[in-house]
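User: Mind token order:
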Amino acid sequence: GINTQWQFRKKLTAAIGEARTKEFYDAWLANHFTRADVEAMKAWGFNSIRPALHYKWFTLPIEEEPVKGQQTWLEGGF
């Protein structure tokens, strides 16, 4: 089964290849949650939003940090 983000990515890569998987994630990041979504939720009466986020879009894993103990922020997730 597929229970985690990395398992999904592994299956997707096996099915469509690394280049198309990158295209998929680039498109997903650009479109999965937009200002239009926030405006629609506001119009529906929501006063707070809790989007599902994964650390890998914002920072490196601890073992990949170039300077131990310092965060490396990834602009692509913002």
Notes: Residues 21 and 69 are 31 Å apart (CA to CA).
